[in-house]
Structures are given as C-alpha cells and as structure tokens.
Amino acid sequence: MKLGAFSVSLAVKDLKASKEFYAKLGFKVFAGSAEQNYLILKNGNALIGLFQGMFENNILTFNPGWDENAQKMEAYDDIRDIQKSLKADGVPLLSETDENGTGPGSVMISDPDGNVILLDQHI
Fold this sequence. Notes:
The chain has 2 helices and 7 strands. By secondary structure, it is of the alpha/beta class.
C-alpha cells in the first residue's frame, strides 16, 4: 500500500510559540497559513503540521499521491482503493470517503492504542 508523504499533525496551544520552537530544530515553514491557524514545517524529508484549535489530539497523517514536497507522485494508491483494502482487512474506519467519487478524499482510522491516523488525499 502506497500511503504517500508522512507527517505528524500536532494539536498546538500557541502556533507562534510552536513555530519558534521547531525553528530551533531546523524546521522551516513549508506551507499553511498562520491566519488560518495552521503551518506545515519541513526539515529535510521530515514534515510536521502545527494546528491550533482544529483538533484535540495529535494525528499521524499520510497524503496518498503526494511526496514530501507536496508534488504529485507518478504512481500511488488512490484513497478509495486504500479504503477498500482497509475494509477488506477488517480495519474499523472512524470516517470514510465516497467510494464512487474521484479526486480528494480522506479516511480516518485508529491504531490499537487509540492513535488517530488520517489518510488525506488532496489530488
């Protein structure tokens, strides 16, 4: 299963303070908007999303179809195919996408310890 770019999406209390902290670790703003309460930071291939007031807990995020530079991948597994595979394997879905749709879509699952995983396809 090709899940695309991986990042950790952090629920932060203070976007500016978090941005400044991660800048000290070498992360630079890659995408997002402070006015919209989120920033995507990058250090090499490592990606961290900072989200203020958008969700309660941290989330593991995969972006099918995107590489770590938010560029479309030549070959990737569409979110609907991933969803079908998860269902076939008996993985409970917290949310799902329209299996008959095309383009962007997302699926949420959780691991055995309750860590939420977001599969978020933007293309």
